[in-house]
Amino acid sequence: MKKLLLLLFVTILFTGCQNEVRYTQTSPEIDVIKSHIDHYEKKNWEAWLSHYADTSKSFFNTKGPGLSASDALAALKEGVEGLSSYGFEQDDGDMEMIVDDQGRTWVNFWGNWKGTLKDGGETLEVPVHLTYQMIDSKIVREYGYWDNAPRLRAEMAAANKPPRITSAVMKRDTTKKKSAVMKKTEKKKVAKNKDAVMKKN
Questions:
Q1: What backbone phi and psi angles, to 5 degrees, belong to 27?
Q2: pLDDT in tens, 182-199
Q3: How far apart are CA 112 and CA 126, in angstroms?
């Protein structure tokens, strides 16, 4: 009887392990991250912050040290300050949830970020990868990877552009200077011609 009960217990345990989901594209954790990204796009920072655990760490294009949720928020706010619009392109992203060999739950996101600079008006497109470790539907660890170079180049180019003359007064002054220079030149030519006539006589 004991052997039969033991065999039944092992069978139930084995069946339970076999049914464990290790990979999916639909889960409550994925829904949390979808909301998290939506809050970022709408600048709903209070809701964005609510998805993090108190001890969370964020790593953006670096191995360390990690940022607290409030420091990550400050970095993101600074990043969107110089943009007139930004967000991820719809239907151009992919999301998945996996459970690794250590039993940790991760949500991965790949998307195409698009933003327009306030200064210069250039539109940028940058592929982004974000991965989140989740415990009890809260973000405990976050990694973000993207290329900052296109934005830095665009901002430097906008900063080095020569200023445009838009003032009507400045345009009028420029015209006056040109006409004054032309009159002086004409007088000199007339004077030279008189000298030449006098020498002949």
A1: -165, 160
A2: 555 555 555 555 555 445
A3: 6
